[in-house]
Amino acid sequence: MAHTFLLEIGLEEMPAHVVTPAIKQLVKRTADYLKEQRVAYDDIKPFSTPRRLAVQITGLADKQDDISESVKGPAKKIAQDADGNWTKAAIGFTRGQGLTPDDITFKEIKGTEYVYVDKFIAGEPVATVLAGLRDIVMAMTFPTMMKWSTHHFQYIRPIRWTVALLDDQVIPFTILDVTTGRSTRGHRFLGKEIDLATAEDYEESLTSQFVIADADKRKALIKKQINKLATDNDWTVDIDAGLLEEVNNLVEWPTAFAGSFDEKYLTIPDEVLITSMRDHQRFFYARDATGKLLPVFISVRNGTDHDLQNVVAGNEKVLTARLEDAMFFYTEDQKKTIADYVDRLKTVSFHDKISTMAEKMDRVKAIVSVLAKHLNLNDAQTKATLRASEIYKFDLVTGMVGEFAELQGVMGEKYALLAGEDPAVAQAIREHYEPISADGALPESVPGAVLALADKFDSILTFFAAGMIPSGSNDPYALRRQATGIVRIAKDQNWALPVAELAQDFIAAETAAKVAPDLDQASQIQAVVDFVKDRIRKILRSAKQRHDIIDAVTNGSSSDVLRIFTAADILASHADDANFKAVIESLTRVIRLAQKAPAELADATVDAKLFENDSEGALEQGVTEVAAAADKGLNDLYAALADIQPTIAAYFEATMVMAKDDAVRNNRLTELSKLANLALGLGDLDQLIVK
């Protein structure tokens, strides 16, 4: 007989951002537990609201699956002594299986007899197994945890009630001072506590108490209500998925409504209005058919439409207060010049162990000058980027950003345009923060991308030099995100970005301009290179690249971000070639032998007079061709290395590299070193797994 089980955890209101991850965690933990306990079922349906996390399991089996298996133990010669008595090994083995030595049989495998026991474990009733879900509930983890009452136990919010129903029977267990039952609670203000007759009654019973427990149904209803308001008023509403998710996790019985604000506030930039509505009040905004922002908003109430006009008026009052503040700051900020704000940055700390924000901008300008030359920017791009680097943090000390911190960069662009700056400069000011998340939007303009790189490089170099290197999950200054940004921008713009060489140039430029911080940045260059390569590894893993190819390209000698990605693509594209195994094996043999070359041979040249067979001359000619191909790019390099494989094979067939004669041996190691250095341009090929 198939059963239905309901587990509900009733809580004080959870933060909206926790609800969805929490219910996913509960579903996974429950599924893993049932699998571990050998309990078959058809489906696990999740339910979640701000006050509850619940799962309804359908098609549950009556009991655990029985276990019937033959278990192998130690060899007979270990299980019995010379007199045929059972040894401690045999006794311990059978005890571990819940049996005795009397249950032992012997089976021969490849000429050796081994101990075997036939093991049978009858499955426990499902009711007994489900009681173990107590531990699953208590093991859940959350971003923030709290204690309550006199308990030492921590959870996202205090647990107020629990339901555990198998069909119509309560599965008893206790969490702290809360014992499972059949009573659940409806909407905090509109509903009441009710008893569930069976586990199948859950969703319908809660609906009668003004709770839509199915998050997907609740979300669909909110979306339908918003679209109806938009259609009725001829508005265009872009329903932001993140905001919809958040609002959905704030309500149990949603009712959407519209409000308005004075048109005078439309003189404020749209970004400010949208931030006030969406981020601060969790309102949806509307536009007309031409895309112009309208003086209206849509919100969602946790309740019915009773006395809705009072709710509308209250929300309008709160939003108006926010917009009045924004209007004031927007007006006051324009009374000062950009130069005034830049001067104020001399008293604003970037970090007390590093410098002021003004000094950071000086360093970034020096870095920009290096990047502009390295990337061959044209005069207009260079001029715009350098000007942006001189002022790009000025909006941090404006009143608007002081009140609306999430608008930094955005207001910089707005105010720069109002002050008559080049639009390219203004755009770079906004874009230098991008990407603002691991997969966020990237700068679209060249000046914006260069300024973003310079700002991020400065932050990573100076924080590393100041000893504030991320470890474990600790990354208070978001340096991993900034390193990811560097990698993504270089890849997006198709820019060669040799991190080690550029970092040296950055430090030299800062020193020449007398803006270098009082920190030893040079000692941290290799650590920064490794840090950036870690971000490359993560991106390649997320792209489902082969792990051995990732290891090969990131463990190579190159610190060029674009080159590493290109090398990974090339190796992956040739991995299924018929000759890939032969090519890689030949090259790795070359690399390993080249490692035996004495350090003094680093700058040596190959002397053809010391060749003792034709294969040495053929290899030298091949190396010359590979070197010429390497100048054209990595695709040509790989093709040339693949072409030279038969020559390498013939060389090793005819040549003893480690000859007794020192001059001959060193000449051969020099020749192999030249080839190895070229091959290492693709990465540490020894990491590749070839079959």
From TrEMBL:
<keyword id="KW-0030">Aminoacyl-tRNA synthetase</keyword>
<dbReference type="InterPro" id="IPR006194">
    <property type="entry name" value="Gly-tRNA-synth_heterodimer"/>
</dbReference>
<keyword id="KW-0067">ATP-binding</keyword>
<keyword id="KW-0547">Nucleotide-binding</keyword>
<comment type="subunit">
    <text>Tetramer of two alpha and two beta subunits.</text>
</comment>
<keyword id="KW-0963">Cytoplasm</keyword>
<comment type="similarity">
    <text>Belongs to the class-II aminoacyl-tRNA synthetase family.</text>
</comment>
<dbReference type="Pfam" id="PF02092">
    <property type="entry name" value="tRNA_synt_2f"/>
</dbReference>
<keyword id="KW-0648">Protein biosynthesis</keyword>
<dbReference type="GO" id="GO:0004820">
    <property type="term" value="F:glycine-tRNA ligase activity"/>
</dbReference>
<protein>
    <recommendedName>
        <fullName>Glycine--tRNA ligase beta subunit</fullName>
        <ecNumber>6.1.1.14</ecNumber>
    </recommendedName>
</protein>
<dbReference type="InterPro" id="IPR015944">
    <property type="entry name" value="Gly-tRNA-synth_bsu"/>
</dbReference>
<keyword id="KW-0436">Ligase</keyword>
